[in-house]
Amino acid sequence: MTATDQPAPHQPQADPDRGDLIPFYQALRAWFAISLQTFGGPAGQIAVMQRALVEEKRWIGQQRFNHALSYCMLLPGPEAQQLAIYTGWLLNGTRGGLAAGTLFVLPGVVALLALSALYVGFGTTAAVTGLFAGLAPAVVAIVAQAVWRVGRRSLTHPLLVGLAVASFAALAVFQVPFPVVIVAAGAAGWLIARRRPGVFKPATHGSGDGGPAPLIPDDALHRERPSRRRAVRILLIGLLLWAAPVAAVAVLTGTGSVFTTQGLFFSGTALVTFGGAYAVLAYVAQQAVQTYGWLSAGEMVRGLALAETTPGPLIMVVQFVAFLGAYRDPGSLDPWVAALLGALLTTWVTFVPCFLFIFLGAPYIERLRGNRHVSAALSGITAAVVGVIANLALYFAEHTLFTTVDDHTFGLLHFAVPDFATFRPIALGIALVAITLIFKARWSVLRTLGICAGLGLAAALVGASGI
C-alpha cells in the first residue's frame, strides 16, 4: 500500500486564535520524535521530516515542503534545522518555529556534551583511546563519501568541475581563507550564469512534486505579509539575542578571554556555513588547531566522529571544539565550568542565526526563490563546496594516517607534508574497512562507525602499534 492509498489521518483541530493549524501539543510530540531520529547528516534528517510530516501526518504537502527546502538551501547554516524551523512556523506560527528548531538540536546538544566530558575525563585510558582510534579512520571514509555525493549532484558541467578544482587548490595549496573562497565562488557562479546560462540546471530536492494530499491546504498555512516594520523588529530582537551572551562574557571575563574569542569566531562561522557543515569544518579546524590552539588536529577528527554518532546537525562538532578549548584555558573559572560555558555559548551563537534567517526571510520566500541571480550564486558556491570538502578529506586523512604532519612553504605555495616514518598501518586498515562498508556494502554511517570503533578497541586491547 502506498502513502497515497493509506487511510487519511484525522483532521487536526486548529486553534486559529493562536496561529495554530494543528494543536501545539501534537506538534511538540511530533518534533520531539523527529529529533530522536536525526542521524545520518542533512539528507537523512530531511528524509525523516518528509516521512513524518508529508507522508504520515500529512500536515504539509510535498510541493510546499520542497518550496521551503529550496529557500533553506540558500542560507548559511544547517539546512535541515532551518527546514524544521520553517515548517514549524508554517504550522504553528512563531512559537511553532521556535519549538521545532530547539527540539531539533536539543538531543544532540545533550549527547555531545556528555561525550565531550567523557573524552576529557577518560580520553587517555586504553579503552577510550582505542575507540577513538577506530572512529577517526572511519571519518575519513565518511568525508570521502560526502565529496562523492555532493560532486555527483553538483558538478554537472566542466566549468563547475573547474570551479571545484580551483577551490580545492586555493585552500590546499595557496592557503586562501575559507570566506574568500566562498565569496569568490558565489561571484563566479553569478558571472558564469550571465555568460553561459545553460551551465546551471534547475536544482531538485527530495521526491517529485506529487506525494499524498495534505490535510491542511497550502493556502491555509501560516503566512505573514512582509513589511519593513516587521523586518526591523525581528532583526533587532534577533541580533540582540545573538549578541547579548557574547557581550556578557566579554564584560565578565574580558575581551581577550577564550569565551569572548569563541563567541566572536563561531558567530562569524555561522554566517559562512554554506553547503553544509563539511564545507566550513576545514576552516574551523585550521583556525581552532593552528591559530587558537584549542585542540589538536587528531582531536578535531575525533570530535567529528562523536558528532557523527549523535542526532542533530553535524555542525554540532563546534561544541566539542569549544568544550576542549575552554577546559584548557579556563581563566579564573573551574575548568569544567569553563568547558560547559564555552560549549553552550558556542552552541547558542551557532544556532540562533538560523531562527533569525527564517523568521526574517520567510515572508519573502517567493520573491527570493525566483531570483535567478541568487540561484546562480548559490550554484557556484555548491560547486566550490566539493573542493572545500575534498580539502577537508585530505586534512583528516593526513592527520589520521600519520602521527606527524609538517608544513612547508615555497613562496605563495603552502604544503602539508606527512612524515612517512610516522605512518599508522592499523589506521589505514580500518579506513579501508570503512570505505568498503560505506561505498561497497552501502552501510549506514552509524553502523560503520560502530564496526570501526570495535576494531580500534580490539587493536588497543591487544597492544597493537600503529593506531
TrEMBL record:
Membrane topology summary: Multi-pass membrane protein
First and last residue of the signal peptide: none
Keywords: Cell membrane, Membrane, Transmembrane, Transmembrane helix
Family annotation (InterPro entries): Chr_Tranpt_l_chain, Chromate_transpt
UniProt name for this protein: Chromate efflux transporter
Predominant cellular place of this UniProt entry's protein: membrane
Gene expressing this chain: chrA
Domain of life (superkingdom): Bacteria
Organism annotation: Streptomyces venetus
